Amino acid sequence: MNDFCSLCLRYCGGSYSTVIFLFMLGTIGLRAENPRLPIDDPNRLQSDKEILVSDKTNWVVADLKLEMIWVKPGAFTMGSPPDEALRNKAEGPQTEVTLTRGYWLGKTEVTQFQYEAITKTNPSAYRVVGSNAPVDSVSWLDAMKYCEQLTDREKMAGRLPKGYVFTLPTESQWEYACRAGTTTSYSGDPEAMGWFSKNSNEATHTVGSKQANPWGFFDMSGNVLEWCRDWYGDYPGGSAKDPRGPGHGYYRIARGGSWRNEVQVGRSAARAGGSPGRIDYTLGFRLALCEER
Questions:
Q1: Which end of the chain is more exposed for a tag (fewer CB within 10 A), N or C?
Q2: CA 165, 125, 282, 277 torsion: positive or negative?
Q3: 2-25+59-291 sits in which CATH class?
Q4: What is the per-residue pLDDT across 166-193, written as a single tens digit (0 to 9) for each?
């Protein structure tokens, strides 16, 4: 835990008071042109109202203008090597992770418009930036509640494939998509891809206004920190399949750095987080659509 606290000291400006502050912490369619599968095909879903997922193309929630990119199953090295510049011990030991199931992940962070459309509230400190800025000042609990509400709405309308739910990505799902096949500290030029203290003018910015990473995701580095589903815990090292973090803990993981942080906080392996009830103007989230487990 000391490694994690020292990590957060660095990311939050280097004061213990800041660390204490941190830890008090309608239509939808699958964009596919293929016709429905034959009725005797084993991949056919159970109801005519359900959506086929035989071709994993991008997912769109049309009324929310929410785009999600399909991420194929695969393997990657999670964490950072001991010689990576500005590395924290909490980023190791490196672990060879295999994700056996694909998932959809939001092309951008959830916006103020998308959040308010479901919850009827907008808690953001930066409403002046506009409805297409990321929602901020949401706790992990708020983010999970949003996921539940959106899942319930789409299930009621028969617009979700059987067994799928909106949720937060696991930490490994998040890092896999952030790295996008790269093994370096960043998946590209961090200042061209993200909003940090050096270029943000002390505010969030419209999502998708910087360069995307190699897999088409925007703002994986900077703008707002993004909650992940996992509790904070040490990496196991060796190899792991579909890791989900410890079964309990004190702090939930947040990733990606924010407009208030220095660029190095946006490294692909960098970790931060806070208590599940923590609300802060640097915290937002990104949706995943996964098989329920």
A1: C
A2: negative
A3: alpha beta
A4: 999 999 999 999 999 999 999 999 999 9
